[in-house]
Design brief:
The complex is a heterodimer of chains A (110) and B (374). With 110 residues, chain A is of the alpha+beta class. Chain A contains two helices and six strands; from the N terminus they run E-H-E-E-E-E-H-E. The relative contact order of chain A is 0.34. Classes of the chains: A alpha+beta (110), B mainly alpha (374).
Chain lengths: 110, 374
């Protein structure tokens, strides 16, 4: 049985990786996925494949699967308030269905 | 006249050195739209190799040298690092269209040290057969950390002061509008337009105090400094001569030339970014390396006359003062002063500051030292 879930996606600067990961865990999510990424946004093209000596130009994308919308919103709020005024970043939420994930508990319990 | 002609002759000779040639070559091919890509992982390894080699050289030298000789030049390095930030605070920040936080961050980055610039200077000194104290490379952290810490502290003091001022004025504003208040938000224009703003208001504003220790810790943990400190420790406590002679020392110059091409390409790609911020940054990043270097050169000369600090050492001190950090400095500043515009300070440092420091300041200070020292 697929368990209904929310997928929270946060794309932000790589320099924030540890801090964002810390907030996600502190809010109570049990796990997350991080990908190195790049692209274009309101602040300019970042990590478009061209070399950079320091990590200030790279982006990361966090994906967090949560069982409730509240938790996802709590994480997104916390991160947006802490960083998005000064750093590049966007957060969005999607509906997801977890097919296989032994440790993931949906709204109805495990 | 003799002094000037000797100096100019030397400058031309320096410009032909392979180190500078590769830097300029990198800029040229980037300007011509070259698709050359040097993988990031290779650059990280090169930075590690160069800084470890400098650390090892210093560590081996420290083992056999008198440490009291280091105290005065190291103290000068600290003074220059701090001074550079205040120079930016009271010159660059005063210029039109320059935001004060951006100026302070730029000062911090210019005060911080570039490992690759230092490596280039050491190579050129060796090519010229100018002797320098092998532990001179160990000044790196003495200038780097004070500069970054000072910049972050000064910027946060400034920002807190500014925040307090705006809180005060907005408080007066709400008080005068009190009579029309109905509900939490007295005026439609006070109503938060985004969710982020709304949640942000629910948190107490409160000034944030700067903690100095985490900044020092972060600097020490940066890739360049930790490699150098590792090399330094290994040089002091172990006998790394065999691996030093067979691996680190022979590869040093070759790897440096690769890094120079990368820095040249990087510099060119940042020029466009710099064009978006105030033009004063360009002026600052051309003039500042010379000013900072000359201050350090002057202080180094004091050590030269009082302590017998070598002219080569004076050049190293001057070059690390004129260099601006490109590897570990930017992320530290980005985290320490989030509201500063990274395009301004990284652009100023990478696009103009570093090429000026490597291409003009190193030959300039070597020439100056030769002209003075004969």
């Amino acid at each position: 049985m697929a368990k209904p879930a929310k997928k929270l996606v946060i794309v932000t600067e790589k320099v924030l990786m540890k801090k964002v990961a810390h907030i996600i865990e502190a809010c109570g999510a049990t796990g997350y996925t991080v990908l190195d990424t790049g692209g274009k946004g309101s602040r300019n093209v970042r990590s478009s494949g061209h070399f950079s000596v320091s990590d200030t130009e790279a982006n990361v994308k966090f994906e967090v699967i949560t069982d409730s919308r509240d938790l996802a919103e709590k994480i997104a709020d916390e991160i947006a308030i802490s960083f998005f005024n000064d750093y590049a970043g966007i957060a969005y939420i999607c509906d997801a269905e977890v097919l296989y994930g032994h440790s993931f508990c949906g709204p109805e319990g495990c | 006249m003799d002094f000037v002609s000797l100096f100019l002759l030397d400058l031309v000779k320096q410009l032909q050195s392979p180190t500078l040639g590769f830097l300029i070559g990198g800029m040229v091919i980037a300007a011509l739209g070259s698709q050359l890509v040097i993988p990031e992982a290779i650059c990280q390894i090169i930075v590690f190799m160069l800084l470890t080699k400098i650390g090892l050289t210093g560590g081996i030298a420290i083992r056999t040298s008198n440490l009291t000789e280091m105290i005065l030049p190291a103290a000068f390095a600290v003074i220059v690092g701090i001074l550079v930030v205040f120079i930016a605070r009271y010159t660059l920040a005063r210029l039109p269209k320059v935001k004060t936080v951006d100026a302070i961050a730029t000062g911090g980055l210019f005060g911080a040290v570039s490992g690759s610039t230092m490596a280039a200077a050491l190579t050129l000194l060796e090519e010229q057969n100018i002797s320098y104290e092998a532990w001179a490379g160990a000044f790196y952290p003495f200038m780097d950390i004070p500069a970054l810490v000072t910049a972050i502290v000064v910027a946060n003091i400034y920002l807190n002061k500014k925040r307090r001022a705006t809180v005060q004025s907005s408080l007066e504003g709400t008080l005068s509008r009190q009579p029309v208040a109905a509900g939490d938000f007295s005026d439609p224009q006070d109503y938060p337009s985004t969710r982020q703003e709304y949640r942000g208001r629910q948190q107490a504003p409160g000034g944030n105090r700067v903690q100095i220790w985490p900044i020092i810790q972060e600097s020490l943990q940066g890739p360049a400094l930790s490699a150098m400190l590792l090399g330094l420790a290994l040089g002091i406590f172990t006998r790394p001569e065999s691996v030093y002679e067979s691996f680190y020392n022979p590869l040093f110059r070759g790897l440096l030339s690769v890094l120079m091409v990368v820095m040249g390409m990087e510099a060119w790609s940042r020029v466009g970014e710099l064009r978006k911020v105030a033009q004063w940054y360009v002026v600052y990043s051309v003039v500042a390396p010379f000013v900072h270097g000359l201050i350090a050169f002057g202080l180094g000369m004091i050590a030269h006359y009082t302590m017998g600090f070598s002219m080569g050492g004076v050049v190293v001190l001057a070059v690390i003062a004129s260099s601006s950090s490109d590897i570990s400095g930017p992320p530290t500043l980005r985290a320490g002063i989030p509201s500063a515009n990274p395009s301004a300070y990284i652009g100023a440092s990478t696009a103009v500051g570093t090429p000026v420091a490597i291409g003009l300041c190193i030959p300039f200070f070597i020439g100056l030292a030769q002209a003075i020292g004969g």
